[in-house]
Amino acid sequence: MSVRPWSGNAANTLLPPSVLFGGGRGLRLFIPFSGGELAAIFHAFRSTLGLSTLYVELAFPDEGEMEELNRESMACLGPTNILSFPALALPSPALPASLGEPIPQMAPALLGSLALAPETALRESFLYGQELSLYCLKLFAHGYAHLAGHEHGEVMEKVCELLEEAAKKTLKE
Fold first, then answer.
1. How far apart are CA 85 and CA 64, in angstroms?
2. What is the DSSP letter of 60?
3. Are 97 and 120 contacting, i.e. CB atoms less than 8 angstroms apart?
C-alpha cells in the first residue's frame, strides 16, 4: 500500500508537496486546504491543547487503501473517513485551559498520524449537506482529539468544538 504521508518537521510545520493526490483508479480529488492552511489548522490545534512541541503526519489514502487500513488497524470492514494512529502516550488527555490542567511541555516529537480518505469525506459531506472544507475540518479535529488521548464522549465533543473554532478563527486571519 502506498499511503502518501505529509510530515511535519521538528519546527512543527507541515510541508505537503501538493494539495492534490492521485487515487487508485486514476481519480484526482482536491483536498480543500492548501499546505499553508493545513499548517495553520494544526498549529491552532496544537496551541489550543498546549501541545505546541508535538507534530502530526497526514496521509490521504484512496478508499481501497483506507479500507485496508481500517481492516488492519480496527478490524472493521469497508473504508472510513479518518483514522488516528497515536505515536505517543500522553500522561493524560490534553485539554484546553478552559477545560482542565494543561499537560507539561514535552520535547519535540511525533504525536501520531492521521489518515483522511478524501473520496469518503467528499461523499459524506454531500450526504450530510456540509461544505467539504468544514466537514474535513471536523474530521481533522476528531482525529486530532483521539491523538491527544480522548475517547468518544461529551468531553471529546467539547474538545472537538474548541479545535474547530480555533482552526476557523486562524483560517479567517
1. 18
2. -
3. no
Residue 16 main-chain phi, psi, to 5 deg: -70, 145
Place of cell 505537503: 16
Dist CA 14 CA 58 (whole Å): 9
Cell numbers representing residue 31 in the block: 483536498
Q: Are 31 and 60 in contact (CB under 8 A)?
A: yes
Asked whether residue 36 carries a pLDDT value surpassing 90, the answer given is: no
Domains (range + CATH), the chain? 5-172 (3.40.390.30)
pTM for this predicted structure: 0.82
State the Cα–Cα distance between residues 64 and 117, nearest whole angstrom: 9
Give the closest residue to 91 by CA, choosing from 20, 146, 47, 149: 149
Reading the block at residue 119, the C-alpha cell is 473520496
Q: Which helix (H) or strand (E) holds 153?
A: none
Q: What is the pLDDT of residues 53-110, one digit of tens each?
A: 888 998 888 888 889 988 998 889 988 999 999 988 887 888 776 776 666 667 778 8
How high is the mean pLDDT of the chain? 80
Residue 21 banded pLDDT, cuts 50, 70, 90: very low
